[in-house]
Every structure is written in structure tokens, then in C-alpha cells.
Amino acid sequence: MKLIYYGVSEEEEPFIQRWSFLHKIPVTIRKEQISKETIEYAKGHDGICLYPSVDMRENETFYRMLSNYGMKQLSIKSTGIDGVNLEWAKKYHLQVTNVPAYSPTSVGHFAVMAILMLARNIPMRMHTDDQLVRKTAIGDEIQDIKVGIIGTGRIGKVVAQTIVAMGGTVLAYSRTQDKGLASLVSYLSLEDVVSQADILSIHIPLTKESVHLFDDELFAKMKPTAKILNTARGKIIDTKALIRWLEHSEGGCMLDTLEDEEKYFQVGQEQNPFYQDLMAYPNVFITPHIAYYTQLAVKEIAETALNNARDILESGASMNTISL
Ligand SMILES: NC(=O)c1ccc[n+]([C@@H]2O[C@H](COP(=O)([O-])OP(=O)(O)OC[C@H]3O[C@@H](n4cnc5c(N)ncnc54)[C@H](O)[C@@H]3O)[C@@H](O)[C@H]2O)c1
Ligand SMILES: O=C(O)[C@H](O)[C@H](O)COP(=O)(O)O
């Protein structure tokens, strides 16, 4: 068996090499994302691990070519699977796997950090005028605000539990409610959470139903002083609606994921028109999809993605297979 792993960063490489050594399975490491130019490197391999590139999101050809190369699976090295076309994967008999729970605390604790920054009005643009900072940065303590959590799955649950442990009040909206959380948080309708929360934190996957869930109508329900945090997927927020809301509210936002960010992963988000538009506002803080980025998470992602590929090639199944 021989695997290929696309889009490998410097930090991931040692974990992949160690896995390859321990399991005695050769893994070709490619720094490039899979693209029209790099897909040919997959020839001669039995299995593949990757993060879906924009090319791959939009072209059925990729799925057909990988199938022609003899691939039986697509191991996606992330939790979100919004970049994969499951119908095309099924058509070309490619089993898709993801890494569902590499470390919910990596994103969960990042979100808690961001919620605290938003609560304390940490200036989004640093400047040296102490007096001005004092005037604008007076904040609230966590026990005095309501945090609204959208999606209480693995990550949202960590956020909810931590905020409650710190003395905060959590309002939650989630398709699947967590029984263990029911005594700690108030489950409400989406509209009630959005209209009552001082800070909203999004933790749902990007699906057909959640594209632009936060639109003009939902923003209009938010408190004019509310803040919104998105560590899930950029497209869950209609960025143009967010900007319209920022224009007339006193609110703010922290975004770890941007609309269309995939198109600019290689060249930098400075090229992303949504980034450019958002940066005109002083109360916007953007981080480059790093909520997950810890040593533990990077190790878990690499090892699980490789295990998923190996399991399918060895036994025809993986515990992390996504069904259509
Ligand atoms: N920024 C990052 O670095 C990073 C890292 C990992 C994951 N993520 C994103 O976070 C998302 C959540 O991850 P998770 O592990 O908590 O997922 P999860 O599947 O464990 O939880 C998702 C929760 O959202 C609920 N849900 C799904 N669709 C919904 C909808 N339309 N309305 C209301 N509730 C809905 C589900 O019932 C579930 O409770 C991932 O899909 C991924 O996109 C981001
Ligand atoms: O490989 C990566 O870059 C990460 O797995 C990825 O960015 C995290 O993806 P997520 O878990 O947010 O779906």
C-alpha cells in the first residue's frame, strides 16, 4: 500500500513521517494542494489524504481521474466536509472520510478566548493612545452577559460548558440538543437566542440549510450592541448583510473563517474582496482559520486522516466514513 498526502504544512510533516515509519506504509508528502496541475502526482498511489481545493470543489473531473487512478477513497483532513461533492464521490465509488473530533477543545477554547476578548472590548486595531483605548475598551464581565451558542455539537458543547463554568449564562440553539447540557443552558428558538444574546458564537457545519443563515433578517433581530463570532464556516454568514449591520449598529465581530476563503488559501486573504470590505470597519477582527491550530490537533488530524485511508484500503470500511 502507498499513500499520497496533499497540502502538507511544515508542522504536519513530522507527524505524517512518524505514522509512515510506525505503520511501515510509504506516504508521499506534497506541499501543494490538489489541483489540475498536481493531481497527476496521485498516479501510482493506492490511497489519498487532502483538504479539498477550490478546483476540486468545482470539477467532477477530479473524482473521475482519481477513480481512474484506482483510488477507492478520499480522506479529508478536516472536520468540515463542505468542500467535497458527495454525489460525485459516490458516482466514482470513492468513500469519503473526515476527522470528526480531532480536538474539540482546540476550537472550543479558541472561541472562549474570542468571546472574552469581545466581552472586554479588546481593541481590534492596536494603537498607542492610552486615553482613547480606555474610553473605548471598557468591557463587560462574563457573568454579566448572555452568550448565544448556535450548534451544541462537539465544539459548541465545550464552549457552553466553559462559559457556564466561568459564571456566564448560555442560550443555545441547535438542531440536536445535548441532554447533558440541558441543565446548564437554556435551549431556545434561533430567533430568541439571536435577539437576547450579547455575544453569539457559531458552531454548526456549512450545509445547504446553513448557507447565509445569518442574513439581513436575522441581523435585524440582534441587539445593536451585540457581537458575533464565527469559527465554523464563512458562508454561514452573508458577509454583505454583516457589513450592512456593522454600518448602523455598535456591534462587532470576530471571524476565523471568511466567505470564499478557500480561493485565497494559497495567495493570502488580503486578496479576498470580503476581507478587504470587512477591514474597513474598526470593530472587525479576523484570524486566518487557526481556531484548530494546536500541536495536538495537527497531530490528531494527520494520524486520523492516514488511519482512515488505511482502514478503507485494508478492510473496505472506516469508522469515519460519511454517508450521502
Ligand atoms: N475554524 C476551525 O479551525 C474549525 C475547526 C474544526 C471545525 N470547524 C467547523 O466547526 C463545525 C462544527 O464542528 P463540530 O465538531 O462541533 O460539529 P458537530 O457535528 O459535532 O456539531 C454540530 C452541531 O450543529 C447542529 N446543527 C447542524 N446543522 C444545524 C443547523 N442548520 N441549525 C442548527 N443546528 C445545526 C448539529 O445538530 C450539532 O449539534 C464544523 O462543521 C467545521 O465547519 C472549524
Ligand atoms: O488541514 C487543515 O488545514 C485543517 O484540517 C483545516 O483547516 C481545519 O479544518 P476544519 O476542521 O475547520 O474543517
Automatic annotation (TrEMBL):
Gene3D superfamilies per the UniProt record, alphabetical: NAD(P)-binding Rossmann-like Domain
Species: Enterococcus italicus (strain DSM 15952 / CCUG 50447 / LMG 22039 / TP 1.5)
Class of the enzyme per the UniProt entry, highest EC level: oxidoreductase
Keyword terms: NAD, Oxidoreductase
Superkingdom field: Bacteria
Signal peptide (residue range): none
GO molecular function: 4-phosphoerythronate dehydrogenase activity; D-lactate dehydrogenase (NAD+) activity; NAD binding
Domain D-isomer specific 2-hydroxyacid dehydrogenase NAD-binding: from-to ranges: 113-291
Pfam families according to UniProt: 2-Hacid_dh (PF00389), 2-Hacid_dh_C (PF02826)
Family: Belongs to the D-isomer specific 2-hydroxyacid dehydrogenase family.
Protein name: 4-phosphoerythronate dehydrogenase
Domain D-isomer specific 2-hydroxyacid dehydrogenase catalytic intervals: 4-320
EC code(s) of this entry: 1.1.1.290
Gene name of the record: pdxB
